[in-house]
């Protein structure tokens, strides 16, 4: 095994480990400020949809858990984050709870295969554009409102780091152009959100 391959494997482990705390700084920031200003709920929901679809797809196809373990880890954090955003934006109501129940019913339908597995085959290609759109929406939220009070710069720096490490590991393993493009764009958007958040937070302090 070459030194580059060993380094790539180490980066993969670091990437998965980073996902254990990816959303934690953002969760703590919202909880501390008791505010979700600057956070776009639709971006979070798109992100959740993308991660959930990817997890269901891997589970239904009986892929090794370690090959997609970061997704359920992030999803668990996403649940907490979305709940806090809904809470502090005062959007927790009967309709919201009904949609939450519908979400879990659909997830159960996929993992239990009540909903035919081929349906996931048609949905999974949409995950990449949906994931990128979720970040673009969050960036637009910050730029349009000029408000990043509740945005955790640490969370987005970790996101950018994990995306760019994946660029290296994928280049070493397969050099898949589609995956490389996805992670380069995703890393760029995460970096842009971190920079925008830092700019508006610093501007407000001054």
From TrEMBL:
GO CC entries: membrane
How does the record say this protein sits in the membrane?
A: Multi-pass membrane protein
Q: Which UniProt keywords apply?
A: Membrane, Transmembrane, Transmembrane helix
Q: Which stretches are transmembrane?
A: 6-28, 66-85, 97-115, 178-200
Q: Where is it mostly found?
A: membrane
Superkingdom is Eukaryota
The cross-references to InterPro entries, in alphabetical order and at most eight, read: MannP-dilichol_defect-1, PQ-loop_rpt
Q: Which Gene3D superfamilies match?
A: 1.20.1280.290
> Per UniProt, what is one Pfam family of this protein?
PQ-loop
Location relative to the cell:
Membrane
| Name of the protein in question | Solute carrier family 66 member 3
Q: What is the lineage of its organism?
A: Eukaryota, Metazoa, Ecdysozoa, Arthropoda, Hexapoda
């Amino acid at each position: 095994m070459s030194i580059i391959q060993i380094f790539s494997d180490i980066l993969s482990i670091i990437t998965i480990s980073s996902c254990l705390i990816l959303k934690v700084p953002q969760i703590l920031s919202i909880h501390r400020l008791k505010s979700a200003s600057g956070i776009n709920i639709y971006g979070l929901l798109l992100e959740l949809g993308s991660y959930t679809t990817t997890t269901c797809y891997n589970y239904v196809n009986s892929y090794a858990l370690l090959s997609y373990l970061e997704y359920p880890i992030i999803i668990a954090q996403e649940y907490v984050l979305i709940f806090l955003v809904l809470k502090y934006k005062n959007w927790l109501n009967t309709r919201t709870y009904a949609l939450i129940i519908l979400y879990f019913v659909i997830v159960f339908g996929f993992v239990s295969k009540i909903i035919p597995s081929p349906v996931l085959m048609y949905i999974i290609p949409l995950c990449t554009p949906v994931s990128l759109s979720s970040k673009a929406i969050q960036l637009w939220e910050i730029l349009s409102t000029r408000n990043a009070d509740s945005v955790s710069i640490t969370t987005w720096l970790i996101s950018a780091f994990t995306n760019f490490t994946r660029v290296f590991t994928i280049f070493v393993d397969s050099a898949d152009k589609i995956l490389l493009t996805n992670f380069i764009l995703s890393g760029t958007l995460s970096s842009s959100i971190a920079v925008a958040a830092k700019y508006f937070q610093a501007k407000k302090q001054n």
